[in-house]
Amino acid sequence: MRSIRLHRLKILMNTNDLSIHDLRAIITVARTRHFGNAADELGLAQPTLSAQVQKVERVLGVTFFERAARRFLITPQGERLLPIVREMLASAERLQQASAQHVREVPLRLGVIPTLGPYLMPHVLVPMATKSPGFTLDITERPTATLIEKLLDGSLDAAILSLPVRNSSLAALPLFDEAFRLIAPRGSELTCCACLSPAQLAASDMVLLDEGHCLREQVVSACNRKGGTQPKVVAASLETLKYMVAAGSGYSLLPALACGVPEGLRDLVQVRAFDDRPVTRRVALCYRRTLADTRRVLQLADFMRKHPPKEVQVVGAVAKSGQKVGLKKGPEKAATRTKATSGI
């Protein structure tokens, strides 16, 4: 009994050098009592299996098997230690299964800005429910600054943001470019002009979102700056903005995904694309560079690139059919530095 306890202690002290595959090799050989049969069962070459067994014996300082041309014996030491090895293998396999189940069951905590959430997420969630039912999202919709805070304090795993995001602690996976379109009262000068250009826009004549929305800054940066950068009227959301334009409060810009006009407003407003120098924003999936498990973030980015709304232009690499999205290159190489990415 004392000998078994000492061997158990020795095994526990040395298991850092052993893998589940090494332990499984010992148990399979002991059960089949034949190296060739065990190798076939494990899908290994016999020299590979023999090397695994020798590794376990070397690490533990114990010989498990007597090998001879026509006989196979388990040594007395092997007989005493095999129950411990079985117990350890079973525990390791349970831990591995529990870990895999945990990864599948825990949702990815995803943030999304309000000017994207209602318009983009239906294009993500609907195909995800049928094509990747095991991939679940816990979605938070907040302005950019709040989402960045939540990324940095660990409350979120990733966030869909409009670039640039100037924070060196974050990495960005570009997803798509989204064009802006003019929304103005029907029959107004801008809707009727021969060639619509961003140079014709003035923030002082526009209906813009509240401060804190990155969309407001992007729209202002596209204007000609005549009359300053303060809007004529401020709206709390894009849907409210549409009604304010319909009421004659001014004109504005809408992201392509948000250009749907309620039926009651279609006779009052007109949505028009730019003819000269289109205005766009680049949307990316951002995450902490120190995030422990970036695999699901990369998988989500790849899924979104493969199932884009028709209104956007996909950017970034898309994994080919059958290609696994992994971490071979690491987050630094797999992602675009947020500081160096241009926005509108």
What this model shows, in words?
- The chain is an alpha+beta fold and 344 residues long.
- Helix 9 (214-222) links the parallel strand 7 and strand 8.
- The protein is built from twelve helices and 13 strands.
- Strands 3, 4, 5, 6, 9, 10, 11, 12 and 13 form a nine-stranded mixed sheet that branches. A two-stranded antiparallel sheet has the order 1-2.
User: What is the CA-based Rg, rounded?
Assistant: 30 Å
Write the H/E string, N to C: HHHHEEHEHEHEEHEHEHEEEHEHE
Shape descriptor = rod-shaped
* CATH topology category name of the largest domain: D-Maltodextrin-Binding Protein, domain 2
Average pLDDT level = 83
Ends distance:
74 Å
Uncertain stretches: 8-13, 319-344
Task: Itemize the secondary structure elements and their pairings.
Elements: H1 2-14, H2 20-32, H3 35-42, H4 46-60, E1 65-67, E2 72-74, H5 76-105, E3 108-112, H6 117-131, E4 137-141, H7 144-152, E5 158-162, E6 170-185, H8 189-192, E7 207-209, H9 214-222, E8 233-235, H10 238-246, E9 252-255, E10 269-272, E11 280-288, H11 295-306, E12 312-314, H12 330-334, E13 336-337
Parallel strand pairs: 3-4, 3-5, 7-8
Antiparallel strand pairs: 1-2, 5-11, 6-9, 6-10, 6-11, 6-12, 6-13
Summarize the structure.
The protein has 344 residues and is an alpha+beta fold.
Spell out the key features of this protein.
344 residues; alpha+beta; Arc Repressor Mutant, subunit A; D-Maltodextrin-Binding Protein, domain 2; 3 domains; two-stranded antiparallel ribbon; disordered C terminus
